[in-house]
Amino acid sequence: MIRTAPVEGFRGLVRRPTVRLLRCLLPYWRRLVPAALAAAGSELAAAGLMATAAWLISRAAQQPPLASVSVAIVAVRALALGRGALRYADRLLGHDAVLRAVAGFRTRVYEALVPLAPAGTPAFRSGDLLTRLVDDVDAAQDLLLRVLIPVTAACAVAAAATGTATVLLPQAGVVLGLLLCVAGLVVPGSALLLSRREGRAEKAARAELAALTVDLTLGAADLAAYAAGGRARARARLASARIAALERRKALATSLASGVVLLLQGGATVGVTWLALRAHAAGALPAVHLTVLAVLALISFEALTPLPAAARRLTEVRASARRLADLLDAPPPVSDPAVAAPLTADEPLGAEISELRVRHRPDAPPALDGVSLRLPPGRRVVLRGASGSGKSTLIAALMRFVPYEAGSIRVGGREMRELRDCTGSDVRRVITGMTQDAHLFHTTIRANLLLARPGATEAELREAAGRARILEWIESLPDGWETLLGGDGATVSGGQRQRLLLARALLADPPVLVLDEPTEGLDPDTAAAVLADILDATRGRTTLLVTHERSGLAAADRVVTLGRGRIRSAARGGIDGTQAAVPPQHVDPAL
Ligand SMILES: Nc1ncnc2c1ncn2[C@@H]1O[C@H](COP(=O)(O)OP(=O)(O)OP(=O)(O)O)[C@@H](O)[C@H]1O
After folding, report:
1. Which residues form the ABC transporter domain (predicted)?
2. What is the C-alpha end-to-end distance of the chain, expressed in Å?
């Protein structure tokens, strides 16, 4: 289903993209909380095991009765086994929760993108768009797995270690708590500040590299033809080198931070042990507590070691969240009305376009200005015109891909509905077909056609292919309907590609069929043959056919010519481009 609503939580908090990202993941809290608890439990068990073992060894040296250490012996066994079990649960629950959360989030981002396409996404280059959909959405995974879960575990261990040390020797607790705060907050915070700019720059550089890579791949033939491959590769190399330099700078900040945490760990161990020794010498601390305090100071920093790396990941996550926010805040070119009028298709439908004005950008001249056109039920209207005259814009407005600022488009049978009052998905259920940039997917011929009507029967598939005059060819292939097509029909000829796209549009069988330049890129003979087949196959269907062809239009019910966004002439069917067209006011209004 096409959603026009933004991804929940992504609008509103304009300046806090990371918080917005987090809010999008909140619905998964029931799975995320046990994962975070298991991670914290595993770290606590490791620290508890070391501290209890230290106590047990020191106490055992005093040769006490076995009963007085039996609880500690059981605790050591339980903690050793529990640590492994909790580590396993942490990995299992953490990955399960995070992969589900990211999969759900990616679907919602994609759904939010659909209303932007095809008119709203040209602002983003295709490689960059891909990076946003793949890498930037994956940042949500890192936010949970590499930032939030380690931070939760580190906080739990630091609090438990400081609490235990304070109970045993208050001044040692204060020193340990302070140094843990510095290692857990100040050091990662500084690393975050140092690598913040690099994180943002690296995301932008990666997006640039992805866009360049897509250009290099898709434009390989043109780059080779114009000997421009060297320059393009040099730009890609430069982008790679920039990423490497930024990575190095970030790695330096992280290693420095890790080094400082190690120094603090040493300092805390020495400081706490010295305080404990003094207290023991003064008779205020039993010897067994002395060992526990020294071990506690040493191991409590272990849980903090992933924090500098977590800070570094956080800079990348923030940059990704900002880029996702940019994408998702892009206003959809056409929004659905709050209360949509229903569009039914239980009778033949037609369309009436009246005084239509469309602008692609507010500051651009109108692509269509005062265009009026009738598409009577069951008639085939051909729309011709020079390149840039507005033919595709008219189709896009009819399919609710672009908005119109003045005039009206009404669709229906006996009762007509204004398109503005209907949802885009309802409109495209009744007005659809072959858009100018129609795409053949890298899958079988059958799957490519079924895209238009997944429930179509074998007979319907064969009928559509037959009407597009491609059935014989499909059935002559060794794999027939199961033949795999290359990306965008790379493994078929231009004529076969257009006929497959036509078969798909015919299979969709919408009440109003639109075909935007179905003969584009074909040689004149093939184009004439395809056009004649199209006009034959669409007899009795409401059809708007856009073409550059001048001949072969004799079978059309009406031929309308656009020029610079206005209707230049209109003529009843039976003419072709070689005959003079009559001005629009002289055309039979029934057409
Ligand atoms: N997304 C867009 N943003 C800005 N301007 C656009 C956009 N799409 C089309 N235009 C402009 O609108 C005008 C009409 O373009 P349109 O694609 O409708 O022409 P066309 O008749 O279909 O041309 P062609 O036969 O070459 O496909 C042109 O001036 C074009 O530059």
Report:
1. 353-589
2. 35
Q: Cα 478 to the chain's mean position, in Å?
A: 37
Among candidate residues 94, 105, 79, 116, the one with its CA nearest the CA of residue 21: 105
Q: Does ligand 1 lie within 6 Å of residue 12's CB atom? A: no
**What is the spatial distance between Cα 116 and Cα 111, in angstroms, rounded to a whole number?**
10
Give per-residue pLDDT as tens, 508-543: 889 999 999 888 777 787 778 778 878 888 888 899
Residue nearest to ligand 1 atom 18, measured at CA: 390
Mutational test site, ligand 1, from 383, 391, 398, max ligand atoms within 8 Å of CB: 391
For ligand 1, atom 31, name the residue with the nearest CA: 388
Beta-carbon count within 10 A of 304 CB: 27
Q: How far is CA 199 from the centre of its chain?
A: 20
Residue nearest to atom 7 of ligand 1 (CA): 360
- Return the best residue to mutate from 121, 382, 392 for the ligand 1 pocket (most ligand atoms within 8 A of CB): 392
ipTM above 0.85, yes or no: yes
Average confidence (pLDDT) over 61-77: 88
Kindly state if the Cβ of 122 falls inside 6 Å of ligand 1.
yes
Distance of CA 360 from the midpoint of ligand 1 (Å) = 8
pLDDT tens per residue, range 168-213: 999 999 999 999 999 999 999 988 887 777 877 887 888 888 888 8
Query: The domain 17-329 belongs to what CATH superfamily?
Result: ABC transporter type 1, transmembrane domain (1.20.1560.10)
Question: What is the total residue count of the chain?
Answer: 591
393 CB within 6 A, ligand 1? yes
Q: Kindly report the protein residue whose alpha carbon is nearest to atom 3 of ligand 1.
A: 360
Q: Which residue ranges make up each domain of the chain?
A: 17-329, 350-586
Three-state DSSP string of 121-189: CCCCCHHHHHHHHHHHHHHHHHHHHHHHHHHHHHHHHHHHHHHHHHHHCHHHHHHHHHHHHHHHHHHHH
423 burial (CB, 10 Å; 0-12 / 13-18 / 19+) is buried
Q: Whose CA is nearest to atom 6 of ligand 1?
A: 360
The class of domain 350-586 in CATH terms is alpha beta
pTM: 0.67
Task: Work out the average pLDDT over 577-589.
Answer: 39
Which of 393, 550, 560 is the best mutation target for the ligand 1 pocket, counting ligand atoms within 8 Å of the beta carbon and taking the most? 393
- Other CB atoms within 10 Å distance of the CB of residue 433: 28
For 248, phi and psi rounded to 5 degrees?
-60, -45
Q: Up-side HSE of residue 545: CA atoms within 13 Å toward CB?
A: 34
Kindly state the DSSP code that residue 305 receives in the 8-state scheme: T
d(CA 360, CA 393): 9
Distance CA 460, CA 55 (A): 80
User: 149: closest CA among 307, 347, 330?
Assistant: 307
State the burial class of residue 230 (Cβ atoms within 10 Å of its Cβ: 0-12, 13-18, 19+). Answer: exposed
- What is the per-residue pLDDT across 120-154, written as a single tens digit (0 to 9) for each? 555 566 666 777 777 788 888 888 888 988 999 99
Quick one: which of 430, 468, 472 has its CA closest to 449?
A: 468
Q: Rounded to an integer, what distance in angstroms lies between the CA atom of residue 62 and that of residue 478?
A: 86
